[in-house]
Specification:
Layout: H1 2-26, H2 32-52, H3 57-76, H4 82-99, H5 109-117, E1 126-130, H6 136-144, E2 149-154, H7 157-170, E3 175-179, E4 192-195, H8 202-212, E5 218-222, E6 233-236, E7 244-249
Parallel strand pairs: 1-2, 1-4, 2-3, 4-5
Antiparallel strand pairs: 5-7, 6-7
């Protein structure tokens, strides 16, 4: 659904800008300044609509890029080779939204703080982020809990690259990013597993974690429940998204 909503919002915003362009063009030549204003206006309108319908921050970023592009393409008609490059760039971040119905979600600052507070300080826990996206959680946990071993796994190529660079060059040595599927990740030694995925994989993920994680470990899902499995604890995050961290003790 986020993919469909994002596409509709981008087309709506870009279409509105193109209609204004057509009206201006009917009255004469349209200046570069006007084209720039229409392009920026399309991006702003798309962002406003995206926030109104509660699309995630990553989808808002995608829309903010796509809407202006949809305005500029019919006006300037760029060479065809640019479109595969744009497609590959977007796929590098958002491919899992199509492949596994797991969009790119980014955890906000308040969620990071609440999550870090769930990890006892001065303990040698192993923390795994399944589908770590751009590495926000991995870097935050690694910095706040230097005694912990923090691992993130990701298979969207460009998301992995961003997360790997952040962990390698901007975080201490206790952070590690792996190009690995969540289904191939060994969680047997994990004390805490965190996931911010989507409803689609939750039943299968719950079965995997219950079969593989050690007794006394915890599984924390950001926002998405496991059908038929009541969490042992729910931690509310005081943010505009009304985020909940659902915790199961295994």
């Amino acid at each position: 659904m986020p993919i469909i909503k994002s596409l509709v919002v981008a087309v709506l915003a870009a279409g509105t800008a193109i209609l204004f362009y057509a009206k201006l063009r009917a009255d004469g030549e349209v200046s570069t300044l006007w084209i720039l204003a229409l392009t920026l206006g399309a991006g702003l309108l798309a962002m406003v609509i995206a926030r109104m319908i509660a699309l995630g921050r990553a989808w808002q970023v995608l829309i903010a890029i796509a809407s202006p592009a949809m305005v500029l393409v019919p006006i300037y008609q760029p060479p065809t080779w640019i479109f595969p490059i744009i497609f590959l760039g977007l796929a590098g971040f958002y491919i899992n939204g199509v492949r596994e119905q797991v969009p790119l979600y980014l955890s906000n600052r308040k969620t990071k703080k609440v999550l870090v507070d769930l990890i006892p300080p001065e303990t040698n826990v192993t923390f795994i982020d399944l589908g770590c996206g751009l590495g926000d959680i991995v870097t935050s946990v690694a910095r706040a809990r230097p005694q912990a071993r923090v691992i993130g796994v990701e298979t969207a190529p460009l998301s992995f690259l961003v997360a790997w660079v952040r962990a390698k060059f901007f975080t201490s040595v206790n952070a590690e990013i792996r190009f690995q599927s969540i289904w191939d990740t060994d969680v047997s030694n994990a004390d805490m597993v965190y996931a911010f995925l989507s409803p689609a994989p939750m039943i299968r993920l719950n079965e995997k974690l219950r079969n593989e994680m050690k007794p006394g470990s915890r599984f924390i899902s950001n926002s998405f429940a496991v059908p038929g499995a009541e969490p042992d604890e729910i931690v509310a995050v005081d943010d505009t998204r009304e985020t909940q961290l659902l915790i199961w003790r295994l």
